[in-house]
Amino acid sequence: MTDIQLVFMPFGPVEWPSSAIGQLLGACRRAGLSARSTYPALEFAARIGFPQYALLSGIITTDTLLQEWVFSRAAFGYLEQGEDLPRSIMPDDSFLGTVTEFLLGHATPEQVEKINRIFRVFYDEQGRFTTAEFYRIREEAGSFTREAAEKIAASGARIVGCTTTYQQYTSSLALTRALKAINPEIVTFLGGAACEGEMGEVTARNFPWLDFVVSGEGDVVFPDLCAKILSGGLSAALKDIPTGVFTTHQPQGSRENGGRGNTVMVGSMDETTLPEYDDFFSDLEISGLREEVKPVLVMETSRGCWKGFRQPCSFCGLNAGRKAYRPKAPQRVIEEMDILARRHGINSFMMTDTILNMNLLDTALAELARRGAPYKIFFETASTLDEAQVKRLAAAGVLWIQPGIESLHDEILALMNKGNSAIVNVALLIYALENGVHVVWNLLCNIPGDRDGFYSEMAAFFPLLFHLIPPRVVKLRYDRFSEYHRCASQYGITLTPLPTYAKVYPFSPDDLDSFALFFEETGGITSRKSKNPGYGGLTDVAVDWRKRFYSEDFLERPTLQMDDTDGVITIVDNRPGRLSGRFSLTGLQRDVYLACRAPKTRDEVAETVCRNQQERDEAAIYRSLDWLAASGLLLEINRACLALANFKPVRELQVGARRRASPFSLNSYDMDADSEENILWKYFEELPETTKGS
Questions:
Q1: CA atoms within a 13 Å half-sphere pointing along the CA-CB vector of 172
Q2: What is the C-alpha to C-alpha distance for residues 638 and 301, in angstroms, rounded to an integer?
Q3: Residue 177 in contact with residue 248, Cβ under 8 Å?
Q4: How sure is the predictor about 526, in pLDDT bands with cuts at 50, 70 and 90?
Q5: What are the residues whose beta carbons fall under 8 Å from the beta carbon of 82, sequence distance 6 or more?
Q6: How many CA atoms lie within 13 A of 458 on its CB side?
Q7: Kindly report the CA angle at 425 between 420 and 430, in degrees rounded to 5?
Q8: Domain residues of the chain, as ranges?
Q9: Three-state SS for 210?
Q10: Into which CATH architecture does domain 293-477+529-551 fall?
Q11: Which of 412, 352, 437, 420 is nearest to 383 (CA)?
């Protein structure tokens, strides 16, 4: 019998284990407690069908709350018990109609096309949209929850904890409610992203079957509370409720920190443990999904955000205000990677850090490079990486990054408090392409204070970049804990929870305001600039960019590649719409072009070139810059210049059929560069086409 069970419910990803549960499990075992983890999400994915699960868990956006709707009936029980619907709850058909309208109304043209494509699994043989599959999945959720609760209760567990980080809120509520109905003596915990600060307080106040709700990092407080419960019962744990913990027995929680954030945070990464993942891999084998899922390992090398601590991006709600940066010791990073890789026979790592610790370039990553890059790694990074830093990342095996690019317009970047520039962002795309590092990046639109002309200006030069990795165009979403949410009045906006919240949760309006994670401007985001011509033109160009870059036909993919041999730069240009396909640069033109490999102002280019020449002819240098820009070989933004051609990549990016996947999307992404199959999209592409817009 195991005293503590940590549970990972739907709709969390099934392609990797939970880092949070793995670390809490390790912390409990380090404290000498009997604990294990279980992954009912895997069983549910097998039960309803892997394509359906992957669609809900990784493709349909979380702000629709469709994932939470699936388990809301099991969680709240108002339909099963014959109670009146809460005033805010919509009938099911109406809710599903709202979700579809929300998806299409908030999507870019590219996303609308994708939505129509991926929803094929929910169309009947005549090509008509049907909600029957949603209802089937919802019915499965009810019986599944009861069976999962019975299994856990039968195991003899005295404490059960669930995470709510990935659309798991209602499924975890449903499970803990069912457990209390079976055995009221089981002590229940809830934690994760949906329990941060006020959200945790609302949760504890509304759902009496929860004994504890943990806001923040439970590495220390969770095993401490468990030890007290196991030795002295629930009453022993209630004598001293730590900061960041809410309880139905004391809904206001601890107020030691004055109520601001009311969250718990470890002071040092030395307080964390190596994550324990054995139970995930055991459950994966039992689930029967081993053929569909090729798992990766998840790990963290730091918590917090060193950039956000100094200069927070206006839109970012990550870390719930815990911006204080706490890195792991580099040697520990190496040791943990080696242990996990040996233990599980996997060499692909997805790092969960908010931002790459730059000190790792000279320490842990340098060591991995010396060892021949034994692992394939994903990191989120700053967008200000220079050429040398990208080379070092690639040499260490960091082959996927998500940098905080967010825009290619300086004024928009300033509005978002990004601290970077458009020209530096483009340079990173060039360096990544040359070094075989795939970049996942977003282009945010509908920014408070922006103008439609900003998007027209970007659209005008985007065709020059078609040889580089394209973005996903994303309309800005307002998140709790972001500067936009915290200081909305300073940005001239009024925010309200997204309408889907009132259709799923039985909360009062005040509790909804305190609980919602996602918001929109009063009146709806579609009432803003999204239908203006500048924005429309930008999305059209971006769609064209993605189609061309990810073309299945290698010959149709745009390139702008250069070679520098014997004092001559040769550039082959097959980007669409270019008049000349081949250029040769010698003498001064070559010197100027090489000087622009890193972003420089015109004066800095002149200084660099003149430093290497006996005679100073700045006028000739400026004429060369003008000619290069007119030829589409050089990009100039706000007097900053950048050579656009890339040297031949050291390794080819995996594009084509794999374009829709990323190492952190729930698309069963195969991080093995030799594999060409994407499991999830194999299912969808075998389904019949449907009428666009239906």
A1: 30
A2: 37
A3: no
A4: very low
A5: none
A6: 32
A7: 155
A8: 4-271, 293-477+529-551, 560-647
A9: coil
A10: Alpha-Beta Barrel (3.20)
A11: 420
- Tokens 């039968």 correspond to 154
Contact of 353 with 380, CB cutoff 8 Å: yes
Cα dist from 197 to 18, 193, 252, 263, 458, whole Å: 22, 10, 11, 6, 39
Sign of the CA dihedral running 90, 94, 100, 104: negative
Q: Specify the 3-state DSSP secondary structure of 141.
A: helix
Using one digit for the tens of pLDDT, what is the confidence trace for 625-635? 999 999 999 99
Three-state secondary-structure class, residue 479: strand
Report the C-alpha gap between 475 and 539 in whole angstroms: 11
Please, is 549 exposed, middle or buried when counting C-beta atoms within 10 Å of its C-beta (0-12, 13-18, 19+)?
buried
Q: Please state, in angstroms and rounded to a whole number, the distance separating the CA atoms of residues 355 and 384.
A: 12
What is the rounded distance in angstroms from the CA atom of residue 229 to the CA atom of residue 74? 28
Is a pLDDT exceeding 90 seen at residue 181? Answer: yes
- The H or E element spanning position 318 is none
Report whether 54 contacts 153 (CB < 8 A).
no
- pLDDT tens-place string over residues 372-425: 999 999 999 999 999 999 999 999 999 999 999 999 999 999 999 999 999 999
What is the Cα–Cα distance from 620 to 78, expressed in whole angstroms? 78
What pairs with residue 643 in β-bridges? 634
Instruction: Look up residue 302 and give its two tokens.
Output: 């730091």
Class of 560-647 per CATH?
A: mainly alpha
CA distance 254 to 331: 36
What is the sign, positive or negative, of the torsion defined by CA atoms of 337, 340, 344, 350? negative
> What predicted TM-score, i.e. pTM, was given to this entire model?
0.89
Query: Using the 8-state DSSP alphabet, how is residue 250 labeled?
Result: B
d(C-alpha 560, C-alpha 643), whole Å = 11
CB 60 within 8 A of CB 67: yes
Q: Give the long-range contacts of residues 92-98, CB within 8 A, separation 24 or more.
A: 92/131, 92/135, 92/138, 93/131, 94/503, 95/69, 95/500, 95/503, 95/504, 96/66, 96/131, 96/134, 98/499, 98/500, 98/503
Amino acid, res. 288: G
**Cβ distance 138 to 150 under 8 Å?**
no
- Find the DSSP H helices in 383-519: 387-396, 410-415, 422-434, 452-461, 483-486, 499-504, 509-515
